Amino acid sequence: MNDPQTDNEPDAAEPVRLPDTPGYPLARGVDTSDIDTVPYDTGALSIRFGDLALRPLEAPEPEGTEVLGGITKVTYRIPALSLTGRYALDARPDEISDIDAGGNPFQPLTPEQQQPTSAVAPAPHTPPDAQVQERWHGRARAHRDKLLTTENGRKLLVEYGKHNDTYCEVFAGSDSVSSTLRKTWQRGGITRRMGEHTYSVTDPEAPPGEQQPVNEWTDPANPGISYNAHAWKQQTALTTALRLKALSLEKKSKLQESQRYTAAALATRSFGAEVAATGNGTSYGQVSETPLTQQQIYQKLSEHSGTLPPQTEEVLAVYEPRASPQEFTVDGSPHAAAEPESADRVMLTPEEQAIVESFHQAYYHQEAAEAEQADNTLHLGLLSARLGGVRITLRLPDGPGSFPTEPEDVEVAMPEFDLDVRDEQWEGNAGEVAKERLAGMTFVLGLLRDSMAEALRYSALTRMPGYALPAEEA
User: Fold this and answer.
1) Per-residue pLDDT tens digits for 430-449
2) Which of 220, 263, 275, 289 is in the most buried spot, having the most CB atoms within 10 Å?
3) Predicted local distance difference test score (pLDDT) of residue 340
4) CA-angle at 208, arms to 202 and 211, nearest 5°
5) Closest C-alpha to 448, from 474, 418, 425, 411
């Protein structure tokens, strides 16, 4: 493998190691009869990556400082990075079936192969302290008590309270879905700042004439993000997480638990529909805004019927992963991936669609890690990529001269890139199929991009030479 050209590479920069990946599925039902070393005629192919390392090819360069609403942000650029590593193309027995069994298509790797060799330590997240949380909880309890004094308020609290345990579970879980939900919720600290704003303008004892609109707010650190836009993105994250949990449980034949998560997802969509009816919804991917004070919100509740229109499972289709593109027809030839349904689907904004895709990537990764073992490695080789123009923005919590301590204060903008997998020795039917499918595996690049961004975020926080803010800007 020829390493990418290095120009002005920082002398002190050490490579940042990324976790090894599990075996990502490429195809099923592939004719392997022309491979002498494979003792079965049809197999499932997967590819895994290891020894992944990021290296800066040029020293970081400052780009500028921005002050908005008292928030200081410093942006710098790493002009070029290289990614290097190794791959293994694996196979396992997989008989061609003439029916669609609807089973799990992700079929790779031994437990040893699933273990990372040198994962980057995750940067810690510090939630609001106990005093802040108690203030917020106290305000929520005061509103709950006020709602309990009205008939419609009681009905709606009972209706949405049915799923509180499920909501707690989906946030507290240990799988990829819950982890992605927590990361989405915490990202950039926007939810925390939005929560503080909500607290400040929703005092149940405030006279009507002194109330400010609850949803007339933009994030002081990101003026392009409005109250409604962020609320809908978080609703999308929660609905996606609930739906993926339901699908995972259904695959494991835990139907009662699966139905519980589906019911919670439908309740989330139902709540969203009621909010949209106030003029604060999304339509054709656009977010609408009707400023409402807490008094106006209580008035809307008093006019509400207290009953909710039923939601069908069709509204959840947009949150589900597409059919796996690695499935094959009976004769072993590839078929095109199914196009998403177009009729009666929820319309998401581009930002919401990106959130859904991030959940699908994490879900895909976990399915691969938990799948059945591969038992035959067909090829080993090298891989590489060159990334140009990585931008890192630091939000300085205490103004110029300070430095961030929370991952939410570090934003990493990763460029698009192509992965060069040295596959010249891949021959025969399996080799051709693997090349074709690897070329179309957008989730793999997305997962690698996320892994690199997390590594760079940690490197910026710990001020690693070659990855950190240039010294003259610190």
Assistant:
1) 898 889 888 877 788 888 99
2) 275
3) 44
4) 45
5) 418
